[in-house]
Write a structure and sequence with these properties.
Layout (H helix, E strand, L loop, with lengths): L12 E5 L5 E3 L4 E3 L1 H9 L4 E5 L7 H14 L7 H10 L8 H26 L4 H19 L25 H22 L1
Parallel strand pairs: 1-4
Antiparallel strand pairs: 1-2, 2-3
Helix pairs in contact: 1-2, 5-6
């Protein structure tokens, strides 16, 4: 297994590929698989794959092979139309610009993804959305208590067993007056919360 990269390690790991298609990690002195190279890539670990016999850098070919294997496993990320457009660019006068464009696009995508994740963390960790959620919960609790029904599991809410039992002798007019008073109290609490 590959060692995790530390801050002072700047040299990429050298992976040697032998004629029998086996990959050898020179850092850990062990044979590895394409799956492990894929994992190293996801972890941001830099590596270079060289042909063990010629010393030629074949990193591009191996990374392409990893993509092909991921695509064959049903983890399709490259739409057919995109692949067709990419193939059509080979031999085109714009071919030399495509790698830089794709790299810049992927960098922008990663930055946007990171900003979105940070925004989502901030939104639910004490930002304005957290305040709205807190106020909504308070209004829910106020509404539940105003109607006299307990909500088991809701903090600060009485359970139905502890709610006062209705008096059987009350007349319908008294009951309506009581409901109106509860509604007025609920409206007052809602006004106070907002």
């Amino acid at each position: 297994m590959a060692k995790s990269k530390t801050a002072n390690e700047s040299e990429p790991v050298i992976i040697k590929k032998y004629a029998n298609r086996r990959l050898y990690n020179t850092e850990t002195s062990s044979y590895i698989t394409l799956d492990l190279l894929s994992q190293m890539t996801r972890e941001g670990r830099e590596f270079v794959v060289v042909d063990a016999k010629t010393g030629e850098d074949i990193t591009h070919n191996v990374l392409t092979q990893i993509i092909m294997e991921e695509e064959q496993r049903g983890k399709n990320m490259l739409p057919v139309n995109f692949l067709r457009q990419l193939i059509a660019m080979y031999g085109d006068s714009m071919q030399s610009m495509v790698p830089q464009y794709l790299e810049a696009s992927m960098d922008a995508f990663r930055k946007n993804q990171q900003q979105f994740q940070e925004a989502m963390k901030g939104a639910f960790g004490g930002g304005p959305l957290a305040e709205i959620a807190k106020r909504n919960m308070q209004m829910f609790e106020a509404a539940a208590s105003a109607f006299g029904t307990g909500m088991p599991g809701v903090p600060g809410m009485p359970t139905p067993a502890s709610a006062p039992a209705p008096v059987a002798d009350e007349s319908k007019d008294d009951e309506i007056a009581q409901l109106k008073a509860q509604l007025a109290a609920l409206n007052a609490k809602i006004d106070k919360l907002s």
